[in-house]
Amino acid sequence: MYILLALIAACVLGVAVHYALPHRAVRGVALVPAIATAVAAAAYTLGQWAGLKESSVWLWLIALGGAVVVSAVAGALVTSVRHHGDAVHRAALGI
């Protein structure tokens, strides 16, 4: 049941990461929060399987910290790839 709290918190943190990263107009508004939620779900589940209890600070740090870090890296990577792809496309069109 506590996994729902982790997923909701990860989604909220993903929204915060989306708005904290520059050039948010070139990526979808739901991409970074979705990545954060998926990472938190996987990390929380793996932590539970590893024997961490719901009251363990490490479980929450791994789930939420991992969600923030991975979603920030993924958002920056998607933005970089999109900018590069747009520049190549503009060059091909002669714009």
From TrEMBL:
Membrane-spanning parts: 30-50, 57-78
Record key words, sorted: Membrane, Transmembrane, Transmembrane helix
UniProt-recorded name of the protein: Integral membrane protein
Species the sequence originates in: Microbacterium azadirachtae
